[in-house]
């Protein structure tokens, strides 16, 4: 975050003569804000700045990170790395071809002043949705945040650049037909997005085995969300303007990846599972013909 490229931020209400807030203090203030649930007034007192400055600093830095640095730290695996990515995933449950695990997680927010019903999730609380893909090390490789909590996972997916790019030019993201993501039944089945069989009580032993292996592979994204929310406790309840929330979420995802890249020991002490609400809780009925063919092939190969 020190890449912001600005020397500092003057506190509002002063017409010169007052020392600008240093880049170091801006960075530490923002990190503290993201890592805790302390009030803006408490943060202002802690860092000896005006309350209005806390809002400005957090907004400026999270906006910069989300729009300028995210592409540097949240990266889709390169074709050169894809074999090792799939090999790492295969070590979990012997499920082949997996480039990432996909899921959505609800980020609780204060009731917005407008469109409250749109942000009401199935638990009748307000939230926005983070859709993410992670690799076997829990590093995020794709993130999309901000959709209202009432949205179905499949609707969020269809609005994301991930889906748009995968449908427009699948081989750019999945250069081999053997590659795919794994997700739960809330998502549509495609040749590049593999989901479980819906259990209606008549699954074959092979289909049940396939479902078990997929679940054991997919669970890594829930662990990634658990690490994210455990370290950045602001995500347990975000109180700010709705339009600023996606930047805050994506900034936390960037910092999450930076921690993993630097082997932060603190991550080991954080609960390794998302105890919040994931997904919409609804099943998606769409299954493409190519997706069915590929899934049946995977079942037969296990």
UniProtKB/TrEMBL annotation:
Hydrolase listed as a keyword: yes
DDE Tnp4 domain mapped to chain residues: 102-257
Molecular function terms from GO: hydrolase activity; metal ion binding; nuclease activity
Q: Name one GO cellular component term.
A: nucleus
Indicate the principal place this protein occupies in or around the cell.
nucleus
* InterPro entries in the cross-refs: HARBI1-like, HARBI1_dom
Q: Keywords of this protein's UniProt record, alphabetized?
A: Hydrolase, Metal-binding, Nuclease, Nucleus
Q: Which cofactor is essential here?
A: a divalent metal cation
Q: Name one Pfam family in it.
A: DDE_Tnp_4
Q: Where in the cell is it found?
A: Nucleus
Q: Which family does it belong to?
A: Belongs to the HARBI1 family.
What PANTHER family does UniProt report for this protein, alphabetically?
GH03217P-RELATED, PTHR22930
Q: What is this protein called?
A: DDE Tnp4 domain-containing protein
